[in-house]
Amino acid sequence: MGGAEKNGDVKEVEIEEESRALDKGPESVETKKKKKKKKSGVHEEEPSGSPSLNGTKEAATTAIAKEDEEEDGQVENGAVDGPSDAAKKKKKKNKNKKKKEPLEQTDPPSIPVADLFPSGDFPEGEIQQYKDDNLWRVTSEEKREQERFEKPMYNAIRQAAEVHRQVRKYIRNYVKPGILMTDLCETLENMVRKLIQENGLQAGIAFPTGCSLNWVAAHWTPNSGDKTVLQYDDVMKLDFGTHIEGHIIDCAFTVAFNPMFNPLLEAAKEATNTGIKEAGIDVRLCDVGAAIQEVMESYEVEINGKMFQVKSIRNLNGHSIGPYQIHAGKSVPIVKGGEATKMEEGEFFAIETFGSTGKGYVREDLECSHYMKNFNAGHVPLRLPRAKQLLATIDKNFSTLAFCRRYLDRLGETKYLMGLKSLCDAGIVQPYPPLCDIKGSYVAQFEHTILLRPTCKEVISRGDDY
């Protein structure tokens, strides 16, 4: 019963303290514990040096105020949900770690070029400004707008150029004396197919791999069964093409292992760079040819103790390029006295030069390997069923792009020579036999594809190598 009285006393104390607490704010956990013990009649001595009850309450109030200040500070710093924000940051960090690193090309190249550029934008070629009369184009808003409109087409041909650069970079190290020419061509062509993701007429090889040797200037590739082997003293012109949606990169370089041929290669390279520099909107083709010849024929080369002046091959030319059309109508001469026709805005050109130690004139010779359907060939009635069937194969796989006999073999065509001759005789398909200077001479070639953009000239196929 005495306990009830004590409870009554405690209640009075509690009421009194509660009224004080209203002014002082929330109680500390420690104060509540002490009151609980007081209720149960347990007396707890304060340790020596500990604050009094009032001091404890003041400390509790101070601690609460401190916590409020810290919370206010967190609100100002935008960290109301501190722990959850930290967790989010951690998750973001982990996500960033999981992000895939940009792909790097393998050796030998096997990753499609499109996968190496996930943004879908491919590297621009070398930019050269036009000469004085056309400098205004650089800042013209109208010309810039034209280029923005053409960006998808530019991007397609830049993709083809990047494939060309990556393939030739590998092939330069792969080519060695003793290699079978057929193996060289098939290695190169299969790599193009893989890197460009060959897709019918949408993307693929633009024309057969030319690997013409010595006095053969162009249009030679091995037919099936050919056993020609590359030799240390050979001068090989490696000319191959890529395309995306018919936009063609035509680009070539020369390989020679014997350093005595270096001046010959240098002559062709410098002549090509001169032609590129001279080319431009409203430039006459004959002026480009004259500049090329002057540079080419300023070189001499000593071969086996005999000195030769390097000559421009007068009946070989560069050319304009159109969609699915490797020779689009305009010729870029490599000697003076050519056509006075002008280059025009928006045109693509293959600027290619051939330097020779021979006569500087080529003729058709040797077994034919290159063929191409005539761009303007209309309907021609054919008698031979085999010719009709072969034409259907050509239309489906090549259309008006050049092809070779190895490509027909690869498609499973057999016994097609009579049908092919029939198509050539009818004028539907044009044969392109090898082009040769005199036997015993040497020919070097370099070539780039350029685009005469509205604001500048872009050497699309330019690379670190040439």
Helix and strand topology:
Elements: H1 2-24, H2 29-39, H3 53-76, H4 82-98, H5 113-116, E1 126-128, H6 141-149, H7 151-174, H8 181-196, E2 203-213, E3 216-218, E4 235-244, E5 247-256, H9 262-278, H10 285-296, E6 300-303, E7 306-309, E8 311-312, E9 317-321, E10 331-333, E11 348-356, E12 363-364, E13 370-373, H11 385-397, E14 403-404, H12 405-410, H13 417-425, E15 429-432, E16 435-436, E17 443-452, E18 457-459
Antiparallel strand pairs: 1-18, 2-4, 3-16, 4-5, 6-7, 8-11, 9-10, 9-11, 11-17, 12-16, 13-14, 13-15, 17-18
Helix pairs in contact: 7-8, 9-10, 11-13
Report the portion of residues in β strands. 15-25%
Distance, first to last CA: 111 Å
**Main sheet?**
7 strands, antiparallel
CA-atom Rg in angstroms: 40 Å
What proportion of the residues is helical, as a percent range? 25-40%
Query: What's the β-strand tally?
Result: 18
- Low-pLDDT residue spans: 1-67, 70-83
Give a quick set of tags describing it.
single chain; 466 residues; alpha+beta; seven-stranded antiparallel beta sheet; three-stranded antiparallel beta sheet; 13 helices; globular
